[in-house]
Every structure is written in structure tokens, then in C-alpha cells.
């Protein structure tokens, strides 16, 4: 800045943001008919920005043992339910954890967050409660998100024992969904036939439910929407870290108890 001059006037980001009041029918139709690949690319770019620029993963200047990265490659999973019915699902990428092993990065957890993008939504409506616009999305989109989560969970139950996080995206709108599965849901899926499945589902003592918790739709065209998405992604990563720590402590306590039992057996033998 030149001494004695006035400060330059900078435009705020809000001056460049779209106003849904100004979107006419033709522009709305053009936006909602964009290819699904455009939405996928947009979300991937957003994830790269959050994970590479907003998340500090090498605080001490050293290469971290693990690193969270966007997963660009879709994952295709095949599973079986009700005895022999094969079901296939393929996501649109997501967020994964990489581990530095033998001088190379190896994918350690590919399902920190799943991404499911859709091109089509029915329209835009104003939500009086939030004071913002949100997309009207067909119910079959949510059903497909559930299917993605169920299949990924069934094939990776140890990795996803606390549930599945999924980002649903359509055009410039994103929402976060957490699917959690009842303690008897695996038994329900593994039942040999439909009649057995119904019997298990009708047993009031069994928990065969899928519990879903979701956010509202965030429009990343707005600064407020981008901030909300950033906070949710970082919160999910913190959630994973907390559960990893809890699992590590539980494993250490089990090892300690086992060592104690072995020592007790040795003492009994000495007597």
C-alpha cells in the first residue's frame, strides 16, 4: 500500500454470490439439468480445498503417519442379502485416510465419508423456517443413498461399525447423512430367505432398524453454505479421531487384562 493513499475498496464475496430471487425459469432448468459429473467435480474440488488448505495435518513439519485425502476413484461393492440375492452399488468417491507405509501412501480407510451425487432435482422451494431455498429431491434419491450405505456397511462391518457418513449432492446443494445400523440388522440381511427376514423384523426383541440423521441442504454458492460444509467435514473427521482413540484405549485395556490373567495363571502354577 502507498503511504498517504486511501485503502483500496475490496468487494465482499457476497457481491459475487448468486441470488435465488434473480433466477428465472430458464436458468433454473439449465442448472438442474447439468450432468452429474459436473456436480461430482464440484464436490471433489471443495473437498480438496477443505482437506488440503483448511486442515493442518503436518503441524510439526514432519510427514504425518496418516493423512486424510479426497478419494477420487469410485468404489464398487457387491454383497448378498436374503441368502443369494446379489446387490451392487458404486459411489462417486468420498474422503479416505491414507497411511505412509514402506515409502508409499496406502489407503487405510476408504470410507470416512461416501459421496453420492445426483443430477436431477424437481425444483426449488423457500423454507420459511430457515429462511433459505432448498432443492426438492425425489424420494428415490434418498433410497439410493441408503442402499449405498447398507452395502458398504455390510461388506465392511468392522471398519464401519459406528455407521456410515455420506454426502448427498445435487447441483450446488449438499447435505450430510449419518446412517447407523441396529445390533440385529446384519442378522436380518444374512437371513436365508424372505420369510426368515420377516420373522426377524417382526421380533420386537431385535433391533433391525436403520437410524438416519441428516442435516439440511447447504447451498455452496453462498458463503454461509460453504462455511457450514467446511465445519461439518472437519467435525466428521474429529468424530472419527475420537472413535479411533476410544477403540485404541479399549484395545489397550483388553491387552492389559489379558496380561493380568496370564500373570495370575503363572502365580497359581507356582503355588
Task: State the main characteristics.
about 270 residues; alpha+beta; 7-stranded mixed beta sheet; about 25% strand
Description:
Residues 253-271 have a biased composition (Acidic residues). The strands form 3 sheets. Strands 1, 4, 5, 8, 9, 10 and 11 form a 7-stranded mixed beta sheet that branches. This protein has a two-stranded antiparallel sheet with strand order 2-3. 39% of the residues lie in helices and 27% in strands. It has 6 helices and 11 strands. The chain starts with 24 loop residues before the first helix and ends with a helix. The chain has 271 residues and is α+β, with helices and mostly antiparallel strands.
How do you describe this structure in short?
This protein is an alpha+beta fold. The protein has helices at residues 25-32, 36-54, 139-155, 185-190, 194-202, 223-270; strands at residues 66-71, 76-81, 85-90, 94-100, 105-118, 123-127, 132-136, 164-170, 173-181, 210-214, 218-219.
List the helices and strands and how they pair.
Layout: H1 25-32, H2 36-54, E1 66-71, E2 76-81, E3 85-90, E4 94-100, E5 105-118, E6 123-127, E7 132-136, H3 139-155, E8 164-170, E9 173-181, H4 185-190, H5 194-202, E10 210-214, E11 218-219, H6 223-270
Parallel strand pairs: 5-8
Antiparallel strand pairs: 1-4, 2-3, 4-5, 6-7, 8-9, 9-10, 9-11
How would you describe the shape?
Answer: globular
In terms of structural class, how would the helical and strand content be classed? alpha+beta
Give the count of helical stretches: 6
The mean pLDDT is 83
Biggest sheet details: 7 strands, mixed
Amino acid at each position: 500500500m502507498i503511504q498517504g493513499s486511501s485503502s483500496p475498496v475490496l468487494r465482499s464475496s457476497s457481491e459475487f454470490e448468486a441470488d435465488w430471487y434473480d433466477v428465472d425459469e430458464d436458468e433454473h432448468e439449465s442448472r438442474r439439468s447439468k450432468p452429474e459429473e459436473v456436480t461430482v467435480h464440484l464436490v471433489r474440488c471443495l473437498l480438496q480445498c477443505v482437506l488440503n488448505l483448511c486442515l493442518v495435518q503436518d503441524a510439526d513439519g514432519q510427514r504425518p503417519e496418516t493423512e486424510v485425502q479426497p478419494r477420487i476413484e469410485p468404489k464398487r461393492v457387491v454383497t448378498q442379502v436374503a441368502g443369494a440375492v446379489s446387490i451392487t452399488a458404486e459411489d462417486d468417491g468420498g474422503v479416505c485416510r491414507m497411511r505412509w507405509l514402506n515409502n508409499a501412501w496406502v489407503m487405510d480407510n476408504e470410507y470416512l465419508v461416501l459421496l453420492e451425487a445426483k443430477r436431477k432435482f424437481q425444483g426449488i422451494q423457500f423454507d420459511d423456517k430457515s429462511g433459505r431455498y432448498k432443492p426438492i429431491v425425489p424420494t428415490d434419491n434418498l433410497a439410493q443413498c441408503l442402499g449405498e450405505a447398507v452395502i458398504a456397511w455390510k461388506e465392511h462391518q468392522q471398519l464401519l461399525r459406528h455407521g456410515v457418513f455420506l454426502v448427498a449432492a445435487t447441483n450446488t446443494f449438499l447435505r450430510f447423512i449419518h446412517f447407523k445400523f441396529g445390533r440385529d440388522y446384519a442378522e436380518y440381511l444374512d437371513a436365508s430367505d424372505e420369510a426368515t427376514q420377516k420373522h426377524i423384523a417382526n421380533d420386537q426383541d431385535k433391533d433391525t432398524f436403520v437410524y438416519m440423521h441428516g442435516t439440511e441442504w447447504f447451498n455452496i454458492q453462498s458463503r454461509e453454505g460453504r462455511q457450514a460444509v467446511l465445519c461439518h467435514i472437519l467435525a466428521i473427521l474429529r468424530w472419527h479421531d475420537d472413535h479411533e482413540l476410544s477403540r485404541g484405549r479399549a484395545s489397550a485395556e483388553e491387552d492389559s487384562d489379558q496380561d493380568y490373567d496370564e500373570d495370575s495363571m503363572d502365580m497359581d502354577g507356582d503355588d
